[in-house]
Amino acid sequence: MILTIDFTDETNEVGAQHIELVEKLLQHAASVENIEPETEVSVTFVTNKAIQDINREYRGKDQPTDVISFALEELGEGEMEVTFEGMPRVLGDIIISTDRAKEQAEEYNHSFERELGFLAVHGFLHLLGYDHMEPEEEKVMFAKQDEILQTFGLGRD
């Protein structure tokens, strides 16, 4: 195991099989990305209402979204990187709206598992510094996403 993942289900609707799927998929993604062992990440499952509140507060967008990541290693202006010898690397938090995941699975005509996996990987890559604001960045991030999902067995049919 590369990652230590702390799961929180604020919806009380996420089954053990879905948590296990996300756990295995993120371990796979960490392996593909050569993440050092004992790296920590948290995954929280929330409702559309909860993610809308977070989206409004942190991104200024008053609408639900599917996934939000808070990278703890992302440096703000004027901040310096601080590392503690012997302490595990903490990547940050991935927050997934299970409501949006269900809606999008239906919209894209694939399984809830595929959508949940996609959102987990998407959020994880954001924690690693990948982005999709510019076309070139998007190409790199989406290719990495597809590679991870395909090699795990959750690619597009």
Automatic annotation (TrEMBL):
Keywords assigned: Cytoplasm, Endonuclease, Hydrolase, Metal-binding, Metalloprotease, Nuclease, Protease, Ribosome biogenesis, rRNA processing, Zinc
Entry GO terms, CC: cytoplasm
Enzyme class: hydrolase
Co-factor(s): Zn(2+)
GO molecular function, one term: RNA endonuclease activity
Binding site for Zn(2+): H122, H126, H132
Coiled coil (residue ranges): none
InterPro entries per record: MetalPrtase_cat_dom_sf_prd, YbeY, YbeY_CS
rRNA processing as UniProt keyword: yes
Location in or out of the cell: Cytoplasm
Listed GO biological process terms: proteolysis; rRNA processing
Signal peptide extent: none
Superkingdom of this protein's organism: Bacteria
Cofactor note: Binds 1 zinc ion.
TM ranges: none
Record flagged with keyword Transcription: no
HAMAP family: Endoribonucl_YbeY
Family that this chain belongs to: Belongs to the endoribonuclease YbeY family.
Functional summary from the UniProt entry: Single strand-specific metallo-endoribonuclease involved in late-stage 70S ribosome quality control and in maturation of the 3' terminus of the 16S rRNA.
NCBIfam families, per the entry: rRNA maturation RNase YbeY
Protein name per Swiss-Prot or TrEMBL: Endoribonuclease YbeY
Source organism of the structure: Lysinibacillus capsici
Classification lineage: Bacteria, Bacillati, Bacillota, Bacilli, Bacillales
